[in-house]
């Protein structure tokens, strides 16, 4: 999946070829097909991996209990913005804005993955849409800090779409 993600830096997903991903990963093309079933299956697994990594980052921020709750909430907002700026797939997941350069991560109707790989089975569980991802983060914030988290998440998402002067963490701290 790293090879597939790296390919996105130089070409749109429609131009990414399984044979090139396999060569970059040092595996056979057949191995990719065995693991993911198809290019669509690889796309779903890649997007799912990035969504899971993003949520794991939220969990890491919330697990750090060394600061005040306001600092943890600001940290979540800063993580959302930082992750979305660093990763085009996370940005698309958070905003719901998918360019034609990116794989959608959504299953193509009528196609069965046909792969039994762990990554593919996880991907076939579904990729969260933007509103679902916001909800997943909101719930984590509320469970981790014990305060309503929707405003924090929505401020961070708005910062991803239209960055403001200064840092999003300071805005969150002022709101609290």
TrEMBL record:
Key words of the record: DNA-binding
Domain HTH tetR-type: residue ranges: 1-54
Bilayer-crossing regions: none
DNA-binding region: 17-36
InterPro entries from the UniProt entry: Homeodomain-like_sf, HTH-type_TetR-like_transc_reg, HTH_TetR
Molecular function, one GO term: DNA-binding transcription factor activity
Pfam families: TetR_N (PF00440)
Top-rank taxon: Bacteria
Keyword set includes DNA-binding: yes
Record has DNA-binding as a keyword: yes
PANTHER family named among the record's database cross-references: HTH-TYPE TRANSCRIPTIONAL DUAL REGULATOR CECR (PTHR30055:SF146), HTH-TYPE TRANSCRIPTIONAL REGULATOR RUTR (PTHR30055)
Name of this protein: HTH tetR-type domain-containing protein
Taxonomic source organism: Streptomyces finlayi
